[in-house]
TrEMBL record:
It holds the Pfam family MOSC. Transmembrane segments: none annotated. One of its GO terms (molecular function) is pyridoxal phosphate binding. This is MOSC domain-containing protein YiiM. Residues 19-168 form the MOSC domain. InterPro entries: MoCF_Sase_C (IPR005302), MOSC_domain (IPR052716), Pyrv_Knase-like_insert_dom_sf (IPR011037). The lineage of its organism: Bacteria, Pseudomonadati, Pseudomonadota, Betaproteobacteria, Burkholderiales.
């Protein structure tokens, strides 16, 4: 299966879930036009409180649709946009990609992966027990965060459901994604 966009979402307000829309416009260096997290500097409320001048490494939230099937098996029925993602993908193991991977999405957009989404207690406020379901332990004891990845927009463009996603890996050696 080729990697593709399943759905796109945005919300101008700081709410946990985002409504699905027909298309989003990615703006280079800023993020999703019309989304609360759009900007060159941090927009996430807890990060703004720490230092409002730090760069926004969380301009775009991408989530793998395959997580929904996994969570369904654990009793959680989720719909696109409910975990706050901007781009829901299919056919791409986002969590295994290295830092600085570039995703070419649709005909024009290019997103550079900066790290893993760090799931917080808002997930449990949305659905009790969901936080534990999106976290796991690797055999070596490391915490595995499964709530998607974050990125910055290198090249803007319109992104819609059905758009193809092409992966461009960074030069070796690769560095695994860490929470941002």
């Amino acid at each position: 299966m080729s990697a593709r966009v399943v759905s796109v979402s945005r919300d101008a307000a700081h709410r946990f879930s985002k409504p699905v829309v027909p298309a989003i416009t990615l703006l280079a260096g800023l993020g999703v036009q019309g989304d609360a997290h759009c900007g060159a500097t941090v927009r996430h409320r807890s990060r703004v409180a720490q230092n409002p001048d730090q760069p926004n490494l969380r301009q775009v939230h991408l989530l793998q649709a395959e997580l929904f099937a996994e969570l369904r098996g654990r009793g959680f029925e989720l719909a696109p946009g409910e975990l706050g993602e901007n781009i829901l993908t299919e056919g791409l193991d986002l969590l295994s990609l290295p830092t600085a991977t570039e995703l070419l999405i649709g005909p024009h957009a290019r997103v550079c992966l900066t790290g893993l989404r760090n799931p917080c207690s808002q997930i449990d406020a949305f659905r009790r027990g969901l936080l534990a379901a999106v976290l796991a332990r690797a055999p070596d004891g490391q915490l595995v965060r499964k709530a998607g990845v974050m990125g910055v927009v290198l090249d803007g463009g319109v992104v819609s459901a059905g758009d193809a996603i092409e992966v461009r890996l960074p030069p070796l050696p690769h560095t695994g994604l860490e929470r941002v």
